[in-house]
Amino acid sequence: GVLPFPAVDGDMFGTFLARNAADFLRRPHARPFFCYVSTFETHSPFNFPADWPFRHHADEFSVPDLTDDD
Which of 12-21, 27-36, 46-55, 60-69 has the highest mean pLDDT? Predict the structure, then answer.
C-alpha cells in the first residue's frame, strides 16, 4: 500500500512554495511582474501529509454512471 509522508500539510514542500508566493504577492511592488509557482506533488511518488488519509470517507462520494464515451 501507499504510506503517508511523515509530515503534516504545513510541512509539505508545495505548502512552503505556496506560502512564500502568497507572501511575495502581499508585498507592494513598484512594477508589474509575473509570478509562476509550480509544484510537483501531484506526480509520483505521491507524498501526502500524514493527516490526509482520514480527511474523507468513501461514503461521502458518489460514483458517476459510466457512459459509452468513458
Answer: 27-36
